């Protein structure tokens, strides 16, 4: 084993030379200092940039912009507000898939069902809430709003916001 | 200097300078991290082995790893079409208005306009959110009994009937956003020291509403309005009180000019709150500009 190592060092002399504790003369030191780069500036950054431009597949695509460039504000996903409508109590409504497709082959009851708008469930509503900005989550006060009756849920005990009317006991 | 010292200094001259690349900690300054061996010692902290969880590549919102995502699955519907152009009127119910009068937050012996309603502190609106003033709603119309000269921005037919039944009058008036900005915070506006602006005419899609006598528009013909008042009383079946015989006749017939924003103050005037004076323009050109 020991003989093997000795033979290896003999056959590859630079292994011994490159060790830090090996004696070196001044001339050799100068050549080493000139060759080594002690600065980070000299690291090859240009080649990295080149690679990312050459390969567009590595660039990520994000739908929600969390911080815009101009104002640092969150931006909404336009596809969401194009397809869904937010009610004031936090529910979202949508159309049914295929509600405009091949209507000639669908019978009356099915066409009636497809005309309706349906509610998203709680998980979906939460997702949609996070995909739009605060402007879309704010209450809108339009006059003659066709969705006016659906913005409040006073008829259901657990969602009613207004106090119950008081009727004094009869004498 | 001796030969050995000179040699040493000479050597030092050629040695590399100290920099971030060649400094290192003192021996023993850093403890090597030990590999845990107990129950959760070498654990992956619930992130699993390989894959999405371990690499923490959180997916973008709504992305379903290749599925047609939920937020793109349904056909488009113009729910929000033209939302940036639509005017919003935050509601105030007749019940709330009655409460404001009963609690002396609004003085019914003077004409009540948007300034009085906002100064009551119980109604909020924001101009930058496309709010254009009060929409008076019919909640509590059966118990409304305040006799007031009211000016709101939107009112429905039962609301108009409830106010006129109580012996009051109502006008619907339009204010452009610049005027509203002055109204929303009056003190702040006067402190700016700029002249009170002219009220602009309503936009094309609102002209019809505000010049209709049935809506008690501020641009409607007064004679038409008195006819409509009578017609509405017939429709809802109440006895219309004659304003001419009312002791508060002078208060009830007060109206703003279509160019006016504040009662008693004309456009072009500057209100100096510090010296408690009102500055009025005298230049002919200005008078012509601010004349309605």
Task: Annotate the secondary structure layout.
The complex is a heterodimer of chains A (171) and B (292).
Chain A: H1 2-11, H2 14-17, H3 26-35, H4 46-54, H5 78-83, E1 84-86, E2 92-94, H6 108-115, E3 118-119, H7 122-131, H8 134-137
Antiparallel strand pairs in A: 1-2, 2-3
Chain B: H1 3-14, H2 51-55, E1 91-93, H3 94-102, H4 114-119, E2 135-137, E3 149-152, E4 154-155, H5 157-165, E5 169-172, H6 177-184, H7 186-191, H8 204-210, H9 222-236, H10 249-252, E6 270-272, E7 277-279, H11 284-290
Parallel strand pairs in B: 1-2, 2-4, 3-5
Antiparallel strand pairs in B: 6-7
Q: Can you walk me through this structure?
A:
The complex is a heterodimer of chains A (171) and B (292). Chain A has helices at 2-11, 14-17, 26-35, 46-54, 78-83, 108-115, 122-131, 134-137, and strands spanning 84-86, 92-94, 118-119. With 171 residues, chain A is mostly helical. The model of chain A is unreliable at 1-24 and 42-52 (pLDDT under 50). Chain B has 292 residues and is of the alpha/beta class. Chain B has a domain at 91-290. Helix content of chain B is 30%, strand content 8%. Chain B has 11 helices and 7 strands. In chain B, helix 5 crosses helix 9 (222-236). Chain B starts with a helix and ends with a helix. The interface between A and B is large, with 39 and 35 residues.
């Amino acid at each position: 084993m020991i003989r093997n190592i000795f033979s290896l060092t003999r056959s590859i002399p630079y292994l011994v030379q490159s060790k830090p504790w090996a004696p070196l003369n001044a001339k050799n030191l100068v050549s080493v200092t000139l060759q080594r780069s002690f600065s980070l500036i000299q690291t090859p950054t240009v080649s990295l940039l080149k690679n990312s431009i050459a390969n567009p597949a590595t660039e990520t695509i994000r739908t929600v912009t969390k911080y815009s460039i101009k104002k640092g504000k969150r931006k909404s996903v336009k596809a969401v507000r194009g397809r869904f409508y937010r009610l004031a109590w936090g529910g979202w409504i949508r159309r049914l898939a295929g509600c405009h497709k091949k209507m000639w082959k669908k019978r009356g009851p099915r066409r009636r069902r497809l005309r309706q708008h349906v509610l998203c469930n709680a998980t979906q509503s939460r997702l949609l809430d996070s995909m739009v900005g605060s402007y879309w989550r704010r209450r809108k006060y339009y006059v003659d709003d066709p969705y006016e009756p659906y913005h409040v849920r006073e008829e259901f005990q657990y969602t009613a916001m207004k106090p119950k009317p008081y009727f004094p006991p009869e004498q | 200097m001796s030969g050995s010292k000179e040699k040493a200094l000479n050597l030092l001259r050629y040695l590399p300078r100290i920099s971030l690349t060649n400094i290192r900690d003192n021996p023993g300054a850093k403890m090597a991290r030990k590999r845990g061996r107990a129950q959760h010692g070498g654990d992956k902290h619930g992130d699993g082995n390989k894959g999405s969880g371990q690499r923490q590549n959180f997916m973008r919102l709504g992305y379903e790893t290749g599925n047609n995502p939920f937020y793109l699955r349904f056909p488009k519907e113009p729910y929000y079409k033209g939302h940036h152009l639509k005017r919003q009127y935050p509601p105030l119910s007749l019940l709330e208005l009655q409460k404001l009068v009963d609690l002396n937050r609004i003085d019914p012996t003077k004409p009540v306009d948007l300034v009085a309603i906002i100064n009551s502190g119980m109604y909020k609106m924001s101009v930058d959110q496309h709010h254009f003033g009060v929409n008076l709603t019919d909640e509590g119309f059966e118990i409304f009994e305040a006799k007031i000269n009211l000016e709101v921005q939107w009112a429905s037919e039962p609301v108009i009937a409830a106010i006129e039944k109580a012996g009051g009058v109502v006008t619907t008036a339009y204010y452009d956003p610049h005027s509203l900005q002055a109204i929303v915070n009056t003190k702040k506006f006067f402190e700016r020291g700029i002249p009170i602006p002219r009220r602009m005419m309503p936009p094309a899609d609102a002209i019809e509403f505000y010049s209709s006598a049935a809506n008690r528009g501020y641009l409607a013909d007064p004679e038409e309005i008195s006819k409509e008042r009578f017609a509405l009383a017939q429709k809802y079946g109440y006895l219309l009180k004659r304003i001419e015989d009312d002791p508060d006749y002078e208060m009830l017939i007060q109206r703003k000019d279509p160019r006016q924003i504040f009662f008693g103050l004309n456009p072009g005037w500057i209100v100096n709150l510090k010296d408690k004076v009102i500055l009025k323009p005298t230049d002919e050109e200005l008078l012509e500009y601010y004349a309605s």
